[in-house]
């Protein structure tokens, strides 16, 4: 049955609907997640926040994402992709809506609610990519998976545009708008059935055939029905089984940790650093972020196709080495000008082509390197472990520049180069892991990857 899927050369309308649902979900998901970066630029002055307090607000969602990725990812292997997809969208949408009620100077309330936003976001990211991958042929899995991630910078960009339009006292409206992702639940209910791969592993062969027939837009009777003899034995996912695949563990965990530490440290702090270092208003800082998100968007498109042209390992190496060098270069030029324009801003924009664009590899690849029965559990564990980066990225920068410093324009920050050296080295580590230790999955079917992992 799945051999028929892999022989497919063009996508059907229903497969495109599956991709569309995931694309919308990812864009709005990360719109919610990164809103805090723009909100922080508005409140750091009036609330007199220190680097330490601001870092706690930023990293709280990272703590939530770690737990959410592990728990939701495990549940998706146990109860199915579709149910978990719906649950995670409701989770982060409602938590974001509650942020509208943040009291004045309520940075602790902000921290608690951001934890629950992260819990949902961590889960959704770990289920929508595998769900899409399990409905498309192997020859298109790389660029389709990358395409789903391409819209994440657009979600950040939407936050930047809205942040630029908001007045100083209107930042709560950003959180009210963040409730919109709950509409994605309706799209999923209308469009997307359960993954046929997951159904086969549960022994629900007739449902699997109907699901795949819907995706291929053919009659179920035209597809061969899997049998007990041909189907894999039903296996209940468990975290302990992850350690039977040490290379998958190494590549997906450390690759995620390096990329997430670097990108979250930069993106969550960038609006506030523009206000601090370049003496611009929060609205102007939000406008400056638009260029970074546009570069990330084009980077993700490029890496989506690179994953099929030069392979996952080479693309991952390019992500790490390209982003690492440029992030370090930006830090050492934080006070330089280039033709009357901030070199810090321009170099960061170039860095985002690799740093953000490379996530077209990070997410899809973290699902590909695990066997079918552990796909979302493994990806969730990798994203959860990498979620440590959401903590040590923002917190690391705060510690290096002095966590007790107040975020205000007259604070001298000679430690900025060291802070960006710290973030850049995490990207370089990811590049080494992907390039030298990665498993090449380009062009291989899910069943072929399963066999190779079982034989390793």
Describe this protein with a few key phrases.
two-stranded antiparallel ribbon, mainly alpha, single chain, globular, 456 residues
SSE diagram, text form:
Layout: H1 2-6, H2 13-43, H3 51-79, H4 81-98, H5 107-133, H6 138-150, H7 152-165, H8 172-177, H9 183-191, H10 196-201, H11 205-216, H12 246-278, H13 282-309, H14 312-331, E1 337-338, E2 341-342, H15 343-355, H16 359-368, H17 375-386, H18 388-401, H19 416-437, H20 446-455
Antiparallel strand pairs: 1-2
Helix pairs in contact: 2-3, 2-5, 2-6, 2-7, 2-9, 2-12, 3-4, 3-5, 3-17, 3-18, 4-5, 4-9, 5-6, 5-16, 5-17, 6-13, 6-16, 7-13, 12-13, 12-16, 12-17, 12-18, 12-19, 13-14, 13-15, 14-15, 14-16, 14-19, 16-17, 18-19
Short description:
The protein has about 450 residues and is mainly α. It has helices at about 1-5, 15-45, 50-80, 80-100, 105-135, 140-150, 150-165, 170-175, 185-190, 195-200, 205-215, 245-280, 280-310, 310-330, 345-355, 360-370, 375-385, 390-400, 415-435, 445-455; strands at about 335-340, 340.
